[in-house]
Structure formats: C-alpha cells, structure tokens
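Action item from last week, closing it out:
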Amino acid sequence: MTTTPDVAISSPGLVPVSGERWPSGSLPQARVSPWPTKIFRGASAVASDIVAAGGTAVALKVDISDEAQVQQMILDAVAEFGALHGAFNNAGIAAAGDYAFGTPLTDIEATDFRAMIEVNTTGLFLCLKHELRVMRQAGTSIVNTASAAGLIGMPQGAPYVASKHAAVGLTKAAALEAAPRDVRVNSICPGYTETPHAPRQRHHHGQTTASGFHSPRQTRPTRGDRGDRGMVAVPPASSFMTGSNIAIDGGLTAGGSTIGAG
C-alpha cells in the first residue's frame, strides 16, 4: 500500500497539519491519482502564504504509516523551528481497496480492514509517539481528528468505525500519559463532511447507493462549517482541557441521527 499524507509545518504555532489522503487502489485510479499531488500543492500554497506574510513555514509529504518517515518529520520540525509546540493530526482515509461505507461487514476483505487500521490507527499512534517524545514544554497541545464514528456505531462501516474508536481511545490514553508534564491531547469528532473526495457513493451488488450519516439539521456540512474548530483545544485558554473528544456533528451523536442511504 502506498500512502502520501501531506504536512504543513508553520511558525510561530509550529503545528504539523497532516492532510487527508488515499492509499493506492482505494478508489478508481482516475480519482486516486490526483489527490496526493493536489493536497501537497495546497500545503505548499499555505506555506507560501505564511512566508509571504512574514512568517516561517515548511511543507512536507510524509507517509504516516511509515515510522521512519514520521520520526524524520518531527525531527525536521524541531530542527527548523527549535521546538514542537503543537500538533494537529488530521491524516486519515475513509475507503480502502474494495471497502467503502455501504459494505456489509461480512463482505469486507481482511486486507482492506488492515489497510484502514494501518493508516487511521497505526499512523495516528506513530504521530503521537514521536510528537510526545519531543514535546517537553508545558502548555503544548496535540489535537487529533477522530470522527463521530468514533463515538457511536454505524452499520456497513466496520473498518472506519473501528479505526475511529481507536483514535478516541488513543487520545484518552495519550492525554493521561502526557498530563503530568502539562502536555494536552484532545480530539475533534466531526460528522459527515462534504469534500471533493468524500466517498458518498459506491456500487454494491450492481446497485448505486449513497452512504452516510445525517444530523438532525438535515444538511451535509462542508469543511467551511467545521472552520478552525480543530484548533479549539490548542490555545492557552483551553489549558484545562485534555482527554476530551469534541463532537462537531450537528447533533448526530446526541441520538437524533438518521443513518443509511441519503
């Protein structure tokens, strides 16, 4: 499996921001191939904007399922900026191989399940491991992107649901270990978010279905609706927040959701 997450590291925040990405073969090739390049160009553009505004920034392309690359990313950040004060772990996938939302558990291949876990769970673990090794300054913060699927169960989405429940658990475990040195670890748990590469539809047994989970607001939020909520737990004003998993889902996990085709 080849994965190509992207990371933008900026100063003074020194926050690695890892972008969403797809493993090879997770979607039809025409849809897979452009995304790593487009995402990295986006990270590069953000870095260029920061530099143009008088700041310091670096854009990197890293496979977070590869420990050596993750470790080097963190070491490069520290070498460039002197320290790592915060991290936003946002890389993840929602489809792998023949699996996408709408696939019954009994039809999911073990290789596809492992591919999902390798990126969404092992990749997050590796980022946390190497970030926490260098984050020694009190008041530093890590924010992980989990999912509403990490707080509730959802049918026909077992690999993704399992990987995001793991992200919630990793957030809590890491928060407890880091708390004595005043390093905070939290996660955001967004509901379904409309993006250009969201796996809204798939063909299953000859039928086209749109899979997803809908909030009581009956709308599908866009990335703009999520805004900068990923950074809500970073500032000093959130100094007493750690081990929290913050739902940003329009009421989905409150119990008012509709799950299934839509």
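Closing note: Residues 1-35, 199-212 have pLDDT under 50 and may be disordered.
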